Amino acid sequence: MTKNRRAFLRESGAAAALAQLAQSRPAAADPNTILIDPAPLFDISPYLYMQFMEPLGTTDASVEAAWNYDTDDWREDFVQTVKDLAPGAIRFGGLFCRYYKWREGVGPAGSRPWVRNYVWGGKETNRAGTHEFVDLCRRVGAEPLYCVNFLGDGVKAYGRTREGDRTGDAREAADWVSYANDPDNPARKRHGVPQPYNIKLWQIGNETSYGTQTFARDESIAHTIEFAKAMKQRDPSIGLIGWGDRGREGPWAGELLKRAGEHLDYVAIHMMGQSPKRPDTVLKGRAYEKEPERAWAELIELSNQIETRLGEVEGIMAAQGASHGIAITEGHLSLTPHNANPILSEWLSAVYHARSLNIYQRHGARVKIATAADFEGTRWTVNAVMLAVPRGASFLMPVGFIMRLFKKSNGDQGVAVKSAPAQLDIAASRTADKVFLHVANLEYRRSIEAALAVEGMTIIGGRVREIAPQDLREYVGAERPDVFRPREAALPSGAVPKWRFPAGSVSAVELDLKRQSPQQA
């Protein structure tokens, strides 16, 4: 017999997570009040809502599908969708960087060779190279982030392919920095680009600790130092990201910081592997369709893993006395079928995505680069942007709608939520006389009304942008691309403003403030 939701939650980590959330908040005079302490805690990074682009060959037509060969430019619908998404940075790399040779993607487009995509199948045309990728980033207001070929991450097979040695050494990576950032670089000027690209974010190595074919930890760290010295010698102003995730030897971050920390600015981890551990999970294939409420509870349970992993890395960094930022340069739900589970096109997945993004922002003192999706393509449901084929309108997946909502309604500094109803997951920020709240109602069936208050301040107005489908099985597709577009409403006036957050909703609340007089205080 199917368990009811209450019984399932009692047995699951979801109930424990909600209880822990409630216990961690100081009691307020009214437990139904969202109370904000407006004192700034940390600066929120502009790269907190990053996107991640990788050529995926025959697996998912991503970069090639985003290029319009009729106009010889990026698809206009794609550019406009990404501009609206407003990512702070876009990363180019992934496993593809293990065999990517940057020189094959510069110069006259007609002279660039087609190259084999060893991981994802097929071939890539190199039509979208350094110039085109940076141009896309500038057009949509994002900072470009390149992942360099780090000796193939140690995978020896890439050094002896039928097409030759596809690995890249420290000199090759340093030459790329010079090509991009040296004002007088002759090769770039010969290619018709007189001004430098000024690419400031570079990652050394991608998932170097995963599997048994990549570098061991000590070897990776030694090469990281080599690459970092060579690259920063060409441009000391760049921000370098070193790989510090778990591997065969356990977490790498501590040893990486101890030995290479002086050369790096960020430590990279990936939030991959966020997959169900329950043998009877409904998050496989379409099993969730029969028990959507249980799927919702399991997704809350999975989001707890984000908090656990961040806590581990933060503890390691604190023990080293390191001030480096954490860079989550990839991350999404890992459900079967691989990267294509249909639940990710439904609003059911919103609870995981909204809570993950809130966790990243609440940890913003350390987390400086983060994403909750792959970027774009034609098939994978883990993408933020889907490209209609044949060419039509690009559209956002639920995770993309949430990233856009949070990015566009956000402050410059993180602030604390001192109390709130237990089942509202909230991240708060501030800019001058405005406070911004990112609110996810974790309840599947029940709306939650809450009063709003900011210590020492009077709320004089505000607005709420809200995504609240009546049916949490609602889905997005090419034929209904705007189904999750947020609706906006003014915050009701009153001495103590209140808002009712619908079941399963994700909202961005903007509060206009003025400082209280001594008499009011």
Please outline what is shown here.
With 521 residues, the protein is an alpha/beta fold.
Q: Give the rounded overall mean pLDDT.
A: 92
CATH topology of the largest domain: the name is TIM Barrel
- Quickly give the CATH architecture of the largest domain: Alpha-Beta Barrel
Count the beta strands. Answer: 26
- Assign the CATH superfamily of the largest domain: Glycosidases
Would you identify the regions where 5 or more consecutive residues have pLDDT less than 50?
1-28
Written overview of the protein:
The chain is an alpha/beta fold and 521 residues long. It has two domains: 5-43 and 414-515, Golgi alpha-mannosidase II (Immunoglobulin-like, Sandwich), CATH 2.60.40; 51-408, Glycosidases (TIM Barrel, Alpha-Beta Barrel). Helices cover 26% and strands 26% of the residues. It has eleven helices and 26 strands. The strands form six sheets. It has a nine-stranded mixed beta sheet. The chain is globular. It starts with a helix and ends in a 6-residue tail after the last strand. Residues 1-28 have low confidence and may be disordered.
